[in-house]
Specification:
CATH superfamily of the largest domain: Class II aldolase/adducin N-terminal domain
Structural class: alpha/beta
CATH architecture of the largest domain: 3-Layer(aba) Sandwich
Largest sheet: 8 strands, mixed
Number of domains: 2
Number of strands: 13
Oligomer: single chain
CATH topology of the largest domain: L-fuculose-1-phosphate Aldolase
Order of helices and strands: EEHEEHEHHEEEEHEHHEHEEHH
Number of helices: 10
């Protein structure tokens, strides 16, 4: 039996399997902790190659089940639940692109599928072109556990959100133009103007500018995410969190729609009206019933 030893590799790709098949191998030796990509599994079937999990210093293959790390990846990245989440993330990515909320390879999306596991989008990918096979699995330290592509360079922003807002299950970051215009000008859109905005957003928080992708950039949201599900990132973009990727994208839409509508209202050249205080309190009550954060007051609210 011709074997190819890939025990040094943490991730086994379709290219690795294809090379083994072209070399007429019938077996691949792999570390028990190694991750087999979905496309690699297809190649195994194509070339009729078996995989034998063997510890590097072992004289014979393990007869026990794969270790906890492999089971962890299988549960949080290759399960039916994980596939559903991946498909949802890709759907959200296409919606962001079609709405003009991302351009080029901008924006990123994630979902906290486990206590310490996050499925996220890859770096340098158009959100319109992503497929489930392009997504990544990382832990709360930023270590990539699975995925053929490199995780988004802004993954720390998502991690800080999950660490400091335990109720957050999904995060969407993008560059929607009207809301980003507020972030550029250093202002947050006012409350008590639109009922939908008050219920779903309440008050957005504005954080100071830091270079995207750096630890300092991620840390800017730390004081705010527990009390705000919408964040304006100064001179950069917006971020919203929710219980699902779809709902987080909805909140981005809510924020963007109000910023655009309020700009139009101000251009009419007549005074705009506020929702009376008592009615505004009723909207806060609706927001609370939906499990959304209390939205503490922020500085720099527009008027």
């Amino acid at each position: 039996m011709a074997s190819v030893d890939l025990r040094q590799q943490r991730i086994i790709s379709a290219r690795d399997v294809e090379a083994a098949g072209i070399g007429r191998a019938t077996e691949i030796l792999a570390d028990p902790r190694a991750i087999l990509e979905d496309t690699a599994r297809d190649m195994l079937a194509k070339y009729a190659i078996a995989v034998r999990f063997v510890a590097e210093d072992a004289q014979k293959p393990f007869e026990a089940s794969p270790p906890a790390e492999s089971e962890r990846v299988a549960e949080y990245f290759y399960s039916s639940e994980a596939l559903d989440i991946k498909n949802e993330i890709c759907s959200v990515g296409r919606k962001l692109w079609l709405r003009g909320f991302v351009d080029g390879n901008g924006g990123n999306i994630s979902y906290r599928i486990g206590e310490d596991e996050i499925i996220c989008t890859p770096t340098l990918f158009s959100k319109f072109d992503m497929t489930p096979d392009d997504l990544c699995l990382v832990d709360l330290t930023g270590n990539q556990l699975a995925g053929r592509e490199r995780h988004t360079s802004e993954v720390r922003l998502h991690i800080e959100t999950y660490k400091n807002a335990p109720q957050a299950k999904a995060v969407v970051h993008c560059h929607s133009p009207y809301a980003t215009a507020y972030a550029i000008c250093g202002h947050v859109p006012p409350s008590s103007i639109s009922s939908e905005f008050d219920v779903f957003i309440g008050r957005a928080a504005l954080v100071q500018y830091e270079t995207p992708g750096t630890p300092e950039f991620a840390e800017t949201v730390r004081p705010y995410v527990a009390h705000h599900n919408a964040i304006l990132l100064a001179n950069h973009g917006v971020m919203c969190w929710a219980d699902t990727p779809t709902h987080a994208e909805w909140y981005v839409e809510n924020l963007e729609a109000f910023c655009r509508t309020f700009l139009i209202a101000r251009q009419l050249g007549v005074p705009y009206s506020h929702i009376p205080d008592e009615k505004a309190k009723a909207l806060k009550s609706i927001r609370k019933k939906q499990g959304l954060p209390d939205c503490q007051d922020c500085n720099n609210e527009s008027s």
